[in-house]
Predict the 3D structure of the following.
Amino acid sequence: MWSEVLRLAVIGFSAVLITLGILAISVKVMSFFCKSVEKRGK
Amino acid sequence: MGFDMLHELLLKTGIVHLTTGHIIMWIIGLLFIFLGIKKNFEPLLLVPIGFSIFLVNMPITPLTGPGEIINLFFKYGIETEILPCIIFLGIGSLTDFGPMIANPKTILLGAGAQAGVYVAFFGSILLGFSIKEAACVAIIGGADGPTTIYLSTELAPHMIGMVAIAAYSYMSMVPLIQPPIMRLLTTKKERLIRMKQPRAVSRLEKIAYPCVATVVICLMTPAAAPIIGLFMIGNLFKECGVVERLLKTSQNELLNIVTIILGIAVGSTMKAEVFLKPQPIFIFFLGLAAFSFSTAGGLLIAKFMNLFLKNKINPLIGAAGVSAVPMSARVVQKMGLQADPKNHLLMHAMGPNVAGVIGTVVAAGMFLATIR
């Protein structure tokens, strides 16, 4: 029971950290491309 | 003859069916109404929820039985998960992701602030809840009402009322719960840290963001797609600037209609025979622990990030990672101003605040993916 609970907590919290970490990087990349597109448009 | 008729008449009324439990629930319902009206604690939810608690605890009334009005609200609105998802559409149409896009590292604070969810998960198991029930109690730490309802509908429908009310109660009590924890875990010097004004975010970035976030979150946590999908559609309505009518409807009429039905349906689950047991007391206690640990998690991850950052972040903004938009960001602003009357942290706190919503949705999605 406890090993199952620990497994769920570790998987869950890791998924939150990894997903938001990837989101942070994606936002950074997205901003870079958006700025490039906007510069080219000017 | 006359006595028999009077007896029959009395049996048809609710008076003889009234129990102490009903009266206790009336008091609880009226307390919610009082907190909503007098104290302005989440009135849009506590008033309909409170009145619904009051109403469904009137004995032998045709309200919550199969096919009866409030039962239909619950069956078609909550059991089908439509209402929590539509609420997210409305929230998305009101959310500005600009501060988060301007400073993406604050997204990590929203992740740290989910720590309380997992602390409460362990606590709930210790107190005898099943794994599915423990997940529903734990998600209160995310301070996100619709996500809490969504997860409970899937995993433990019998607990919807209790966990939803605990979540909304703690959200409304953010200004009371968070400041002592913020003071305890930060030094005066840290509270004085000034952050650079966030840069202006272009319209193109704001339009691209809902698509990027949908790709990342749906690929990483497919179970969160119903919530995150509608959240991002709502946000796209806001940012694209060409669907004014859809935006107005999402922000106002749709959100208001859904809030009314959701409030009534959630309150209707709080019947005396369900609520007056030790379980709700445990849920309220665990909810408070979850919320406090989430606040602490956000603050501590901000302090940890400062070990590596050249431009330090004020750790107070980590507390806004618990969602509760925009209440916790306002608390951060107030605490920042107390330390330095010229240090405005509101815009900085909005980044982790909206990231916290996403963090809670991902945590709920992972519970669904691993437990369901």
